[in-house]
Recover the amino acids of this structure.
């Protein structure tokens, strides 16, 4: 199983994983709430909430919850969709939010400088031989290498969880 990833510029995070399902199934990981709740958040975190309005112009609110040993805090993200081409491409802008979906600045949730208020994302799903899919997530706009590296690590863990969700046994 390939788990390649490559670093972009200081302003980009790029993470790819190969999933053991076709794009039509991998698509559901991004579009169906019960699927999002299974992989969103880094290792050890859960996703108790995924209110999905998956359409161009729609906004989803996803919540990741830290494990008890990290205090059990919740962090909310709002995803506003700017482009959707089923089953190959999703474009959205992510921002931190409160539990009502109102935007909050990264500093207000304890995130270091270098993370912009709005982070454009591109998700590409490429069909592979054998009914598999390569998913590549690109995040844009980080202004420091430290912020990019922090997000890179989180996105790697999130994509590992997605890959495990669709692993053939």
């Amino acid at each position: 199983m390939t788990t390649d990833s490559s670093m972009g510029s200081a302003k980009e995070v790029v993470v790819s994983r190969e999933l053991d399902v076709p794009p039509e199934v991998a698509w559901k990981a991004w579009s169906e709430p019960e699927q999002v709740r299974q992989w969103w958040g880094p290792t050890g975190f859960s996703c108790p909430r995924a209110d999905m309005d998956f359409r161009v112009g729609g906004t989803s609110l996803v919540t990741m919850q830290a494990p008890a040993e990290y205090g059990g805090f919740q962090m909310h993200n709002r995803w506003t969709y700017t482009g959707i081409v089923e089953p190959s491409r999703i474009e959205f802008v992510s921002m931190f939010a409160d539990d009502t979906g109102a935007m909050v600045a990264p500093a207000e949730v304890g995130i270091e400088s270098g993370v912009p208020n709005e982070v454009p994302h591109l998700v590409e799903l490429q069909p592979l031989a054998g009914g598999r899919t390569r998913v590549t997530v690109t995040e844009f706009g980080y202004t420091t290498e430290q912020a990019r590296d922090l997000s890179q690590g989180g996105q790697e863990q999130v994509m590992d969880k997605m890959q495990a969700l669709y692993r053939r046994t």
